Amino acid sequence: MQYSLGIILNTLLIIVGTAIISFSLGRFSECMTFLLCFCILRLSSGGFHLKTTLACNIVTIFLSTVLPSFITLSNSILWIANVFNLIIIVTFAPNPDRNTRIPASIYPLLKLVSIAMVSSNFFLQSTVIGLAFLVQSLTVIPWTRRRTQ
Predict the structure, then answer these.
(1) Using alpha carbons only, how large is the chain's radius of gyration in Å?
(2) Does residue 124 fall inside a structural domain?
(3) Digits of tens for pLDDT over the chain (149 positions)?
(4) DSSP characters for 130-148?
(5) Number of domains composing the chain
(6) Which residue from 124, 142, 146, 145 is spatially nearest to 133, judged by alpha carbons?
(7) Three-state SS at 97
(8) What three-state secondary structure class fits 95?
(9) How far lies 86's CA from each of 8, 16, 36, 41, in Å?
């Protein structure tokens, strides 16, 4: 129960922190869209975790407020980012946490959902969504070698 409560409180802290900062920057809808797209893709694609919840909270709030507030991509750069995101997701997703209890039998479905989400931005052409997917797709790449036993 303590573990579940911790997850709920950390999620709430990220949402509220992002909402307050983005509202003060006048970029509420962009930042909340970034956070929503990042989180939904993360649910299906997995990715690495930071060592502490505090680090996760700070980094997530920082990224979800700074990137959509201060970075815009031209159409050609957005298209390249979308292709890059798709390549990463096709290659590495899903990459669930080793402690996850997701059965391996649904990994193909999670991959398809992730691919569909990332592919949707070819039609939407949203810089905010493209940035969210870029940040999340980078977390899916296994940067360290896994030990084989």
Answers:
(1) 16
(2) yes
(3) 787 888 899 999 999 999 999 999 999 999 999 999 999 999 999 999 899 999 999 999 999 999 999 999 999 999 999 999 999 999 999 998 877 788 889 999 999 999 999 999 999 999 999 999 999 999 999 977 666 55
(4) HHHHHHHHHHHS--SPPPP
(5) 1
(6) 124
(7) coil
(8) strand
(9) 30, 30, 18, 12
**Do the domain assignments include residue 145?**
no
Contact between 88 and 137 under an 8 Å Cβ cutoff? The reply is: yes
Asked if residue 33 is part of any domain, the answer here is: yes
Residue with tokens 């159409």: 75
Asked whether residue 149 is assigned to any structural domain, the reply reads no
Which domain range does residue 29 map to? 2-140
Q: How far apart are the first and last CA of the chain?
A: 34
Q: Which two tokens stand for residue 138?
A: 């980078």
Q: Please, which contacts does 95-101 make with residues 24 or more away whose CB atoms are closer than 8 Å?
A: 95/45, 95/46, 95/47, 95/48, 95/140, 95/141, 95/142, 96/46, 97/46, 97/48, 97/49, 100/46
